[in-house]
Amino acid sequence: MAEAPKDIEALIEIMARLPGLGPRSARRAVLHLIKKRGQLMRPLAETMTRVAETARECLNCGNIGTADLCPICADDRRANGQICVVEDVADLWAMERGQAFAGRYHVLGGTLSALDDISPEDLRIPRLIDRVTGETVTEVVLALNATVDGQTTAHYIADALTGMGVAVTSLAQGVPIGGELDYLDDGTISAALRARKPV
Amino acid sequence: MAEAPKDIEALIEIMARLPGLGPRSARRAVLHLIKKRGQLMRPLAETMTRVAETARECLNCGNIGTADLCPICADDRRANGQICVVEDVADLWAMERGQAFAGRYHVLGGTLSALDDISPEDLRIPRLIDRVTGETVTEVVLALNATVDGQTTAHYIADALTGMGVAVTSLAQGVPIGGELDYLDDGTISAALRARKPV
């Protein structure tokens, strides 16, 4: 590596810090980029510079956009009284891909965690309570991950919202569409059985 | 995804074209970058812009550098008469990490392949023959991958160099350092047995 130019070494070192990439895959990616300087590396560098300048968090919900309000918070048609609480922007995008939710979002920015010393104030939980108080909210849908921390956070939020006159719901748990029972974990199967519905 | 700003969507789309990344990991990487705009995304964009401007292939050997001659070709101490032939710059870097080779390199830029219609002229094979004719070369070390295409290319080069007064050698094949026999494929074991040495 001593023979790779300094900038290229620096580039590999930064790329290796991206999630999902390590030193070896960063090296491969950088070589690929250098080979395709014109078609790939220049557009990537330009787009990245632009995004680094313009991307910002929505002051209302924490989604990523280019203005004080993200496109969803700025869209009046999404003001249907529903707020979907997600951990992360990636989860918001996943919900949007599902095209089943027509309300607005609230991105917590993580989950409560005693181990990592993350308290409600470190997340956007106070802001959520402000929104429920201030906006006309009828339902808060908790779309948190089905992990221990996710569910702890869901319970905490549900507790915090009791008595505020909003319905608090959470995503159904059960067999995924296209899922094969044989490949499902025991927890999912028993949750699906407990939540069974008449056909 | 319709709700992610256009530039961010474009960034994800370009990142997903890097080797080792797909749409999902590109999305994760981009969100991570946006979260760490200051520490990670801006330096990455700047370094990438710089590398896109300066990186170029060495006119002599095909290595990546920032001048007409790469640091190795520009270094007179490396003119020991040995040329190590590798498929790719990544392989050159791997050889350099091994710190066992003190000569210069020749990067082919791929392997011969009848399937992909890659002929000697598509690689830097003519240039290698020029170098062997022009420079004072005593040995050509073939460090090509132990794949079918790699070995075909090695044979082709060895044939092309016969009668030119250079020794043509190739990397030894055998048990990797730290390798466990039980996990090695049959081909490696039989190659190592055939090449066995007195202790």
Description of the structure:
Chains A, B: A zinc finger (C4-type) spans 58-73. Chains A, B: Pfam families: RecR_C, RecR_HhH, RecR_ZnF, Toprim_4. Chains A, B: InterPro entries: DNA_Rcmb_RecR, Rcmb_RecR, Rcmb_RecR_Znf, TOPRIM_dom, TOPRIM_RecR. Chains A, B: Keywords: DNA damage, DNA recombination, DNA repair, Metal-binding, Zinc, Zinc-finger. 2 copies of one chain form a homodimer. Helix content of chain A is 44%, strand content 11%. Chain A is an alpha/beta fold and 199 residues long. Chain A has 2 domains: 6-54, Orthogonal Bundle (Helicase, Ruva Protein, domain 3), CATH 1.10.8; 78-170, Dna Topoisomerase Vi A Subunit, Chain: A, domain 2 (3-Layer(aba) Sandwich), CATH 3.40.1360. Chain A has a 4-stranded parallel beta sheet. A two-stranded antiparallel sheet of chain A has the order 1-2. In chain A, strand 1 and strand 2 form a beta hairpin. In chain A, helix 1 (6-15) crosses helix 2. Chain A is globular, with a radius of gyration of 21 Å. Chains A and B meet through helix 1, helix 2, helix 3, strand 2 and helix 5 of A and helix 1, helix 2, helix 3, strand 2 and helix 5 of B.
Fold topology:
Two copies of one chain form a homodimer.
Chain A: H1 6-15, H2 23-35, H3 37-54, E1 56-57, E2 64-65, H4 71-74, E3 82-86, H5 89-98, E4 104-107, H6 125-134, E5 139-142, H7 148-161, E6 167-170, H8 186-194
Parallel strand pairs in A: 3-4, 3-5, 5-6
Antiparallel strand pairs in A: 1-2
Keywords (chains A, B): DNA damage, DNA recombination, DNA repair, Metal-binding, Zinc, Zinc-finger
Protein name (chains A, B): Recombination protein RecR
Family (chains A, B): Belongs to the RecR family.
